[in-house]
Design goal:
Blueprint lengths: L11 H15 L3 H22 L2 H11 L4 H21 L3 H20 L9 H9 L2 H15 L6 H6 L9
Helix pairs in contact: 2-4, 2-7, 3-4, 4-5, 5-7
């Protein structure tokens, strides 16, 4: 008597996995959109505030010992506002993310520069560093710089699928 086994039907686990992957793929646009909204709003708000209080920002930079505060303060404020706006709307996102990361690295170096390179208390410092908003902004900006603005962006509308490899 011949075996009455039918072709192997997908297991429940395989079907659930497929459904989960399909769902995740359909929702992939949410992560870059949320990253862009969060980062964009933070930097637009910060840059706008600095641009409208430049004299105070210059004095603050001077107090931190930042060289040429009269040049650096308006430059940083304009970059925060302009690049933040570009990230928010998803236009030239990868390029606009870079100056914002530099600004955050400078902010971290200015605030925590004396602790960098020390081995004593390094674990505590790393734990503190990873919880700082500036470090988290760098992580989100790195994500946007590497993977792009996502499906709901002007980058996608104007330039197409820029985060996928193009084949000849």
């Amino acid at each position: 008597m011949a075996s009455s086994s039918s072709p192997a039907a997908p297991s429940l686990f395989a079907r659930a996995r497929g459904t989960g992957l399909s769902l995740a793929s359909g929702l992939a646009w949410i992560a870059p959109l949320l990253a862009r909204i969060i980062i964009g709003l933070v930097f637009v708000h910060s840059g706008w505030g600095k641009l409208h209080n430049l004299d105070k920002v210059v004095e603050y930079f001077r107090g931190l010992g930042i060289p040429a505060p009269e040049l650096q303060a308006p430059f940083a404020a304009a970059m925060e506002f302009g690049c933040g706006l570009l990230v928010l709307i998803g236009l030239f996102t990868r390029l606009a993310s870079i100056p914002l990361m530099v600004i955050m690295v400078v902010a971290l170096k200015t605030a925590y520069g004396d602790q960098l390179g020390k081995t004593e208390g390094a674990i505590d410092f790393l734990n503190e560093l990873f919880g700082l908003s500036e470090f988290l902004y760098i992580a989100l900006l790195a994500y946007l710089a590497l993977f792009g603005a996502g499906a709901l962006s002007l980058d996608r509308a104007f330039f197409g699928r820029t985060n996928e490899r193009r084949t000849a």
